[in-house]
Design a protein that fits this description.
Length: about 140
């Protein structure tokens, strides 16, 4: 796992991650250093392994790691990819507050099924899971 080669640091006020029709924006009003790690095709470069697209990490009173999966409409696959990346990077982000985001183009409204998936995900990983349709804006 070579993080240095696949990591950039940004202080931009808005850090944008895009893939096809999915979009995630990290709102960085105080312009703190945010490490942007390319996971899919970066630190995990094997087509056989499930992995999310990006990890954003920063320090603001605590160390935070945001695991981002930009997906079309297959929510279950997005959840598997996020969980696999959490497992794969657990030593690196063990002491971080870990938040996962499944950004989809078309998921039904956040009903009981999605709530159950988020709750089950937390019990298995001790990481929160936010499921939202694109575009997603998240503030630091």
């Amino acid at each position: 796992m070579d993080f240095n080669v696949h990591t950039t640091v940004s202080k931009d006020p808005i850090i944008v991650l895009k893939e096809k029709k999915s979009k995630f924006e990290l709102l960085n009003e105080n312009r703190i250093n945010v490490s942007k790690v390319k996971v899919d095709g970066g630190i995990i470069n094997c087509a056989l392994k499930k992995r999310c697209d990006w990890i954003l990490s920063y320090n603001k009173t605590n160390d935070y790691a945001l695991f981002i999966e930009l997906k079309g409409c297959d929510l279950d696959e997005a959840i598997k990819q996020l969980k696999a990346t959490l497992d794969y990077t657990q030593d690196v982000y063990r002491n971080h507050v870990r938040q996962c985001f499944a950004v989809t183009t078309s998921v039904p409204k956040f009903g009981t099924s999605a709530q159950r998936k988020s709750r089950d995900f937390y019990h298995k990983t001790r990481s929160t899971l936010t499921i939202k349709n694109t575009p997603v804006k998240h503030g630091i």
